[in-house]
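look at this fold:
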Amino acid sequence: MKQFNFHEATSVKEAVKASSKKSAYLSGGQTLIPSLKLRLASFDDIINVKNIKDLQGIKVSAKTVRVGAASKHADVAASKEIQKAIPSLSSLAGRIGDAQVRNKGTLGGSIANNDPSACYPSACLALNATIHTSDRKIEASKFFKGMFETALKKDELVTAVEFNIPESSCYVKIPNPASRYAMVGVYIAKHKNEVICAVTGAQPVVYRCKEVEKELNNSFSADALNNLSLDHSEMNSDIHASAEYRASLVISAAQKAVMNCK
C-alpha cells in the first residue's frame, strides 16, 4: 500500500483544511480501504472524519428526517424514529451488505462513492433528499452525475442528508447473492403531489424511471404496470443479469414495492 499522511479531524473545518489535491475522506472505509490495499487508488492525504460530532446523529421533524453523514447503516436501521417516520429507509439500511458492512459503512460514504448498485442513492432520489455539505446544500436530483461521479468538489465533505417524509414508501431490492449489492433496486415513494420511482443497479447511475412514474401517478396500483415495457438499451448487462432481464426486474420490483407501500 502506498504511503500517505493520515489526519485525525475533530471538526468539519479541520477536515476541509487538511484536504489536498490528492486526498480522501475516511469514515467507514468499506470502499476506500480495499481500494488502497489493492492499489486501485492512491492518495497523499487520508483524513479520518468518523469521529466528528457534527457528522453524527439522527433528527426527525414533522416533515423531514436528517441523518448525519457519519451515521452507520446499522444506526439508521435500528433508529426507532426512522422506523416510525420512514420505515422503508430503515428497512433499506438493514439490508445493506452484511453485519460487518452495516456496522462500519456510513451514509455519507455511500452517496459520495456513488456505486451504481448502492442502495442509498435511490432513497435520496425517491425521498427528494437534500445533501448538506461543508460548503452548500445540493438537491439529490443534481447530486448523482454518473458512475462513481457526484456533484461534490474536491475538498467538499458531505455532512448530512435530509430526507422528506412521504405519505407512504417501499424499497424492493433484488440483491446479488454474493456481494449483496442490488442487481436492481426500486424505491417507490408516494408524496402529496407525485409518485417517485428511483432505480439503482439497472443503469450506470441511479435514476428516476419516468415510465413507471407516469403510470403510477395516473393510478397508484401494481396492476397499472401490467402492460408496461421498458427500453433496455441503456440497462447494465453482465454475468449476473442481462439488460433485458434487468428491465423486467425494474417493473416487477416496482409492482412489489407499490403493493407493500406503508
In short: The longest helix spans residues 243-259. The chain has a mean pLDDT of 96. The radius of gyration is 18 Å.
